[in-house]
């Protein structure tokens, strides 16, 4: 009985969630902000390509520490 109640509650909540309307203008504004003002490319380069792996005691760890001190 209890498991049936849980299943019905989960089913009802998923049906209710599907009725939510999506504001496409907000989604478009988020995409525009990402495209025009995002620093993700610069940050990902600094973290992944420039510093490389940052294992304790490695050259990458030292480069990463020095890079952060200079910013």
Give me a quick take on this structure.
The protein is an all-alpha fold. About 75% of the residues lie in helices and about 0% in strands.
DSSP, total strands: 0
Q: What percent of residues are in strands?
A: under 5%
What is the quaternary state of this protein? single chain
Helix content: over 70%
Radius of gyration: 23 Å
Report the biggest beta sheet as strand number plus sense, adding barrel if it closes: none
Describe what you observe in this structure:
The longest helix is centred in the first third of the chain and has 16 residues, at 2-17. The protein is built from four helices and no strands. The termini are far apart. The protein has 71 residues and is mainly alpha-helical.
What are the defining features of this structure?
71 residues, mainly alpha, elongated
Topology:
Elements: H1 2-17, H2 24-37, H3 40-50, H4 59-70
